[in-house]
Amino acid sequence: MAYWLVKSEPNKYGFEDLRRDGKTVWDGVRNNAAALHLKTMKLGDEVLYYHSQEGLAVVGIAKVVREAFPDPTDAAGRFVAVELAPVRPLPKPVTLADIKANPALSGMTMLREFRLSVSPVKPDEWTAILKMAGETR
């Protein structure tokens, strides 16, 4: 299993919206690097859900329930989408400031390539973020 981080503006589609809907098509990704990450995602991969613009924090965990398929919002057919479903909210949000302050997370892709809306997360980074969130599972 691989781990990922996706970013969404909470006023457009927050984690609570995903929980309400039960699943969503993660479409509209037009950055080539982020799109390649979508193509790499596999069924069951887990995803950190990060609120961008407002909140600036990882707030929940989702999972990939459908692997890459043609993005229905891309008339040219160049890009893909995946389908995500909620797993659980985090006990407490892990803010961008918290992530930046943790030396173990200094190499995270989201910090080096901040404009990416989809980025990989290493297993040790995943564990560190869940610990910071107060996860005991």
Provide structural commentary:
- This protein is α+β, with helices and mostly antiparallel strands and 137 residues long.
- The protein has 6 helices and 6 strands; from the N terminus they run E-H-H-E-H-E-E-E-H-H-E-H.
- Strands 2-5-4-3-1-6 form a 6-stranded mixed sheet.
- A hairpin with a 5-residue loop joins strand 3 and strand 4.
- The longest helix has 10 residues.
- The radius of gyration is 14 Å and the shape is globular.
Question: Could you list some keywords that capture this structure?
Answer:
single chain, 137 residues, alpha+beta, ph1033 like fold, six-stranded mixed sheet, 6 helices, 29% helix
Task: List low-pLDDT spans.
Answer: none
Element order, helices and strands? EHHEHEEEHHEH
Q: Looking at the structure, what is the overall shape?
A: globular
Identify the CATH architecture. Answer: Roll
Overall number of domains: 1
Strand content: 35-45%
**Biggest sheet features:** 6 strands, mixed
What is the number of helical segments per DSSP (H or I, 4+ residues)? Answer: 6
CATH topology: ph1033 like fold
Number of strands: 6
User: Considering DSSP H and I runs of 4 or more, what fraction of the residues is helical?
Assistant: 25-40%
What gyration radius follows from the Cα positions, in whole Å?
Answer: 14 Å
- Mean model confidence by pLDDT: 95
Spatial order of strands in the largest sheet: 2-5-4-3-1-6
